[in-house]
Specification:
The complex is a heterodimer of chains A (about 130) and B (about 425). By secondary structure, chain A is of the alpha+beta class. In chain A, about 35% of the residues lie in helices and about 30% in strands. Helix content of chain B is about 65%, strand content about 0%. In chain B, helix 1 packs antiparallel against helix 2. Chain B is elongated and about 80 Å long. Classes of the chains: A alpha+beta (about 130), B mainly alpha (about 425). The interface between A and B is medium-sized, with 14 and 13 residues.
Chain lengths: ~130, ~425
């Protein structure tokens, strides 16, 4: 079955309640997101999900030269960074979009839906 | 059959069968690319063979069978190149065509897939014209004034996204149908509008090819998705709107290439057959609403507004209060500034240009040529020539349509000279 990555983006630096305006909002969203994860698992879509520490904790390593070069920044300069994600299995994009809409409501953020490469698309890449 | 008879048969088959062939193959092979290429090859084969072999008794079935063989050949060739995909070959066989009912639903699937909300609006238009309309990439590129390579890439990218992201080849659920159908109708309306008021300075002011194509595709959707199957009568509404608008086309551009506004058009030049067709659809919807059907959506209201216009034998007989009443209903379901602008034009006829101008001046449409053109006309009627001139200047600057620019330029030149004020 096709796999999709559902990514949630948020600001580079978070406040004391993560990306949420108040502690109540944060707790409610965590509760809603937990319920959404349970639903994904119960209905057989769930593969993996987790949240990331804020983007300012990221380190970039470039190991292409003789010595690895280490930089204390996220890879891309942006206003918003990946904050967490789900990896799901779904029969088609319509199902993935419906789930993403539910996840977006639960976590209070926009969700990007992106398909994983498949064996078929990877084979086509090798053939090209 | 004569050579020209065969050519006509091929043209007709292309118009009538292209979408059916692409749709049936997409369903069977699950791949728009394979379906498109095979359909194009089948039509090329027809061009080669029909002049010698004669036109087959059922051209649609012949084309579908030929395209299916081409697709299977291609997939076998490709699977030979890759041992791992050898088994895929077993999935494709030469079983007979499916019954017509399913094939018809396939065309509807194709339309909904091409207009999927996960595709950009430009991609939806291009893909619909290519896959459903059967226009070639160069034709679509010319229609939208972009380079052929750019248009080709736009279509290729859209097909790749459909494949990689698994946009399903399926009719939307009853729950999703109204929103998804609205997406389809938006694509068709955009194609029609681009034909009716072409935006390019380099193109003809009216593009009959595009209006005709939009009407043909809307007729197809109307036939495949009758009102009783859902959609609240909006397909009928859009078709009526297009027919009533298209009916006025012969009177819309003057011999000198200038836009002729509704009040100055030669109403005898309007196409009565199209008007009667449009009226029949509007009456059908009025009866359905009267019988307790769903309240009319925006296309039905726009069609009704156009029916009031075409109903007047003379522009002075126009029932403007009826038009304002219809716009009031339209504003309630679609409170956009463009609708408010059109409503204000009708208000000017009922309550006077001063009332209308006050409404127009509140609208956030600084970058829209019709906003300035409307202001210019209202200011002129109020005798405020200097401001009218400025508004015409701005409208001319923003208008892309050559006939409209010519019209606005003449209207501006008819204002009193600035120093005469």
């Amino acid at each position: 079955m096709p796999k999709y990555m559902l990514s949630v983006f948020g600001p580079a630096e978070r406040n004391e309640f993560g990306d949420y305006p108040t502690k109540e909002d944060m707790l409610q969203s965590l509760k809603d997101t937990g319920a959404f994860n349970d639903k994904l698992q119960a209905e057989g879509y769930f593969l993996f999900a987790d949240g990331l520490e804020q983007a300012t904790t990221a380190t970039v390593v470039d190991g292409q030269g003789d010595q690895p070069v280490i930089t204390d920044v996220p890879y891309l300069e942006a206003k918003e960074y990946l904050g967490g994600f789900w990896i799901i299995e779904a029969p088609d994009l319509d199902v993935a979009l419906r789930l993403a809409a539910e996840g977006s409501k639960a976590c209070r953020g926009k969700v990007e839906v992106r398909p994983f490469q498949t064996e078929e698309s990877f084979a086509a890449l090798l053939e090209s | 059959m004569t050579a020209s008879g065969v050519r006509a048969a091929i043209t007709q088959a292309h118009r009538e069968e292209w979408a059916r062939v692409v749709a049936a193959l997409t369903r069977r092979f699950g791949d728009l690319d394979v379906a498109e290429d095979a359909a194009a090859e089948a039509f090329a084969t027809a061009v080669e063979r029909w002049p010698h072999d004669g036109v087959p008794p059922n051209p649609g079935a012949w084309l579908t069978t030929t395209a299916t063989r081409k697709a299977i050949d291609r997939l076998r060739r490709e699977s030979r190149r890759d041992e791992k995909h050898q088994e895929a070959q077993l999935l494709f066989d030469d079983d007979p065509l499916e019954p017509l009912g399913f094939i018809d639903d396939d065309r509807l699937r194709l339309i909904f897939t091409c207009c999927h909300p996960a595709l950009s609006p430009e991609a939806r238009i291009a893909l619909t014209l290519r896959m459903v309309g059967g226009l070639t990439v160069p034709e679509i590129a010319r229609a939208f004034l972009v380079q052929e390579a750019t248009m080709g890439q736009r279509i290729t990218r859209a097909k790749a996204k459909i494949k990689a992201a698994r946009i399903p080849y399926r009719l939307p659920t009853a729950e999703d149908l109204p929103a998804r159908l609205d997406g389809v109708l938006t694509v068709l309306f955009l194609v029609f509008n681009e034909g009716y008021l072409a935006t390019g300075a380099e193109t003809e002011p009216v593009r009959n090819d595009l209006t005709a194509e939009a009407i043909r595709l809307t007729r197809l959707v109307h036939e495949l998705l009758p009102d009783r199957r859902g959609g609240g009568g909006e397909v009928t509404g859009l078709l009526a709107l297009m027919l009533l608008t298209e009916a006025r086309r012969p009177a819309r551009i003057s011999a000198t290439g200038e836009l002729v506004t509704l009040d100055e058009q030669d109403r005898g030049a309007w196409d009565r057959d199209l008007i009667e067709d449009g009226y029949r659809l509007v009456r059908e919807r009025l009866a359905a609403v009267a019988a307790g059907g769903p309240a009319p959506g925006r296309y039905q209201l726009l069609a009704a507004i156009n029916a009031v216009h075409t109903d007047a034998r003379d522009a002075r007989d126009t029932d403007w209060s009826q038009i304002v009443a219809l716009y009031d209903r339209l504003v309630r379901i679609n409170p956009s500034p463009v609708v408010a602008l059109n409503r204000a034009v009708a208000v000017a006829e009922v309550d006077g240009p001063d009332v209308a101008l006050a409404l127009v001046d509140r609208l956030p449409l600084e970058g829209y040529h019709a906003f300035h053109a409307t202001r210019a006309e209202l200011l002129r009627r109020l005798g405020r020539s200097k401001e009218a001139r400025e508004a015409y200047d701005r409208a001319i600057e923003l208008a892309g349509n050559t006939a409209e620019v010519a019209y606005l330029t003449r209207r501006r030149s008819q204002l009193g000279a600035p120093d005469a004020e």
